[in-house]
Write a structure and sequence with these properties.
- There is one protein chain.
- The chain is an alpha+beta fold and 390 residues long.
- Helices cover 30% and strands 25% of the residues.
- The chain folds into two domains: 3-188 and 333-387, FAD/NAD(P)-binding domain; 194-325, Translation factors (Elongation Factor Tu (Ef-tu), domain 3, Beta Barrel).
- Strand 13 (211-218) and strand 14 (221-229) form a beta hairpin.
- The mean pLDDT is 97.
- Bound molecules: flavin-adenine dinucleotide (FAD).
Length: 390
């Protein structure tokens, strides 16, 4: 019976990254992946160009039961460490906006880089291998798959979150955490479009395809960018961001005047004889529909100051109560997962189970939109890979 140093379950961003680090330290590492291919989420990430990190990574960009948990791993592996790595493998990249770094050619280059690093480090990757069960006999982990049984001193669960099950995601990591007595925080879809309630659906689907620059708030967080109206609800960067903080029954507030005082704007035009919707500097269909729904269908010079104040307030705090999110199938991430209280922030090892590690999205650390989730996958994988006991 061969006992390898580490079995890593999941050949996604975090599993591959941890594997290469462990292999480089001379550990004998085997990665088991249930699908036929590796790095499936990396391939589709960033619209096929992989937003692989963000220059502005800080702990504030993450949602977690313990917001400080990610600090140690983020300090141990920074965006500049990853940039140095991609440069040394000849991957060309560019900054899109707000520190977001994307591949120039395609996300396949990041997958190729990870594969090469694993090869160089002697890591064995076995795909088409679904792990069914784990047990621990003495100090040895026994991993049972549909492709044989594996024995290891350490076990890394890098099975990701449960979003996009079509790409291989499973709740397996949560089940294993539970089996070893570790707490798992409830999960929710994150970075996901929101679905209108039935009334808004009837009123607003005609706006599908229109995008409005706005600031969207939800539960105390504010995000700026283009709000996109769809057939079923709302999408676009600030909506995806807000969705990570949204829970059933909550409202979102849309500020349609994110850079100006709406009341001063209206006052400056109050002598005009045009309809209000012709004054508002939005796409015409949107301006008209918004005014119709709020019964503001008069020329602006027919409103008194009190009414203009109310209109301005509505423009800057337009509240909508979504019915739900589009769910895990369309979520780029999940909130919740293996409770950080159960893990060492330095090594990602379970405090109560020697040799058992959790890295990446399976852990209760969720990044905002902008390359933060992949950066967490690298940083947590690196922490595990660097500190794992041989
Ligand atoms: C459409 C989309 C776009 C995204 N774009 C970005 C982006 O541009 N930037 C960014 O930072 N983040 C992005 N993300 C999020 C990011 O891809 C994930 O957070 C990251 O890939 C998580 O890495 P991971 O290694 O933890 O898990 P994953 O990459 O999900 O890897 C987990 C692996 O485990 C395997 N697995 C699961 N169960 C088993 C089992 N029982 N046996 C064997 N194998 C198993 C799965 O098949 C999978 O390959 C995007 C996500 C999606 C869905």
């Amino acid at each position: 019976m061969t006992i390898v140093n580490a079995i890593i379950i999941g050949a996604g961003a975090s599993g591959l990254f941890a594997a290469a680090e462990e292999g480089r330290r001379g550990l004998f590492v085997v990665v088991l992946e249930r699908t036929a291919t590796i790095g499936n989420k990396i391939r589709v990430s960033g619209g096929g160009r992989c937003n692989f990190t963000n220059l502005n990574v800080t702990a504030d960009n993450y949602i977690s039961g313990n917001p400080s948990f990610c600090k140690s791993a983020l300090a141990g592996f920074t965006p500049y460490d990853f940039i140095q790595m991609v440069e040394s493998y000849g991957v060309r990249y560019y900054e899109k906006e707000q520190g977001q770094l994307f591949c120039r050619a395609s996300s396949g280059e990041i997958i190729a880089m990870l594969r090469k690093r694993c090869e160089e480090a002697g890591v064995r990757i076995i795909s088409n291998t679904k792990v069914h069960d784990i047990s621990k006999r003495g100090d040895v982990f026994v991993t049972t798959t549909d492709n044989g049984t594996f024995h290891s001193k350490s076990l890394v669960i890098a099975t990701g979150g449960i979003s996009y099950p079509q790409l291989g995601a499973t709740p397996f990591g949560y089940r294993i955490a539970g089996q070893f007595g570790l707490n798992v925080k409830p999960t929710h879809p994150a970075l996901v479009p929101l679905v209108f309630n039935s009334e808004d659906g009837a009123n607003l689907t005609m706006l599908a395809g229109i995008s409005i620059e706005a600031a969207v708030s939800c539960n105390g967080r504010v995000f700026r960018g283009g709000v996109l109206f769809t057939q079923r609800g709302l999408s676009g960067p600030p909506i995806l961001q807000a969705s990570s903080y949204w829970r059933a029954g909550d409202y979102i507030s849309i500020n349609l005047f994110p850079d100006a005082n709406a009341y001063e704007f209206l006052l400056s035009r109050r002598k005009h004889k045009q309809e209000l919707y012709n004054i508002l500097e939005f796409p015409k269909n949107f301006a008209r529909r918004w005014c119709e729904l709020n019964s503001y269908m008069k020329p602006i010079n027919q409103y008194n100051e009190k009414e203009l104040k109310e209109i301005a307030d509505n423009l800057q705090h337009w509240r909508l109560w979504p019915a739900k999110t589009e769910g895990y199938k369309r979520a780029e991430a999940v909130t919740g997962g293996v409770d950080t209280e159960e893990l060492s922030s330095k090594t990602m090892e379970a405090k109560s189970v020697k040799g058992l590690y959790f890295t990446g999205e399976v852990v209760d650390v969720t990044g905002q939109l902008g390359g933060y989730n992949l950066h967490w996958a690298w940083a947590s994988g690196y922490a595990c890979g660097r500190h794992m006991q041989p």
